[in-house]
Amino acid sequence: MNNNKDIDAQRKLNIAICAIGGIIFLVYAAVLITFVRELHPAGVIGIIFTVIAFILAFATPAFAVKRPNAEALFFGLPLIAFASRYFIVQVVVGAILLAAQRVLGAGIAFCIELIILAVFLIAMIVGYFTQSASLGQREERRQQQVTWTFRVTDVDGTMRLAQSKGAPQEVVSQLQHLVETVRYSDAFSHQNPMIMQMERQISDETAQLRQCVAAGDWMTTAALCRDLELRYTDRANQLLAIK
CA angle, 11 as apex, 9 and 13 as ends, to 5°? Predict the structure, then answer.
């Protein structure tokens, strides 16, 4: 629901940005008609690329609304901010070409404009794929956080089950310490075979722990608590070494 509201708000903002862009373009066209008395090839090229800059700068928000939560950066700037900077640069360069159109050849003007446009397009492509990678990593970390929260809840539930079954105080204390160990361990995993193997073993032993508590096997429960504590310590050391 909130996501839909964010998208609607972004769409309204995009409409406002496009409307502002249209007004600025009309002002730009009025200035050209009023003050530019003659056009040479370099000036025409400057005007054409400035029109392209208008389209790209004010169409970028509509492109970005599809990924409202992404933080695609290029040179530390999101796509929309970079597009606005390209627009400003192009307006300045276009004005310079108009002012110097009598002395600048069409080839030089075209090369200058093409280089500027190429830099912007490369930035857009890099930024787009940065967005995709950023969203993928964010979703992966969110899933890991959810999994780890479930694991904490699972061990906490096992501890409470042991209390309800009248487990010895020593066993309850071990389970309480295990809950704290899980809660404050690193929630984010790593695609390392050793780490993944450790986490499978932790999952298997956590399931065994729950079964032992349900069966009232307090000796095995205590042994599994000690074993899990060691596994979490080993996992933490391995993650620290990898990261």
Answer: 70
Contacts 24+ apart (CB under 8 A), 189-197: 189/144, 190/239, 190/242, 190/243, 192/238, 192/242, 194/238, 195/235, 195/238, 195/239, 195/242
CA distance 212 to 222: 10
Taking only the tens place, the pLDDT of each residue in 3-20 is 566 656 666 766 776 777
Whether this prediction's pTM lies above 0.70 is answered by no
Give 164-219 pLDDT, tens digit per residue: 989 899 999 999 999 888 888 876 776 778 888 888 888 889 899 999 999 999 99
Q: Which alpha helices (DSSP H) does the chain contain, by range?
A: 2-35, 41-64, 79-99, 106-164, 169-183, 193-215, 218-242
The answer for residues whose C-beta is within 8 angstroms of residue 111's C-beta and 6 or more apart is: none
158 φ/ψ angles, rounded to the nearest 5 degrees: -65, -40
DSSP classification of residue 191: -
DSSP-derived letter for residue 72 is -
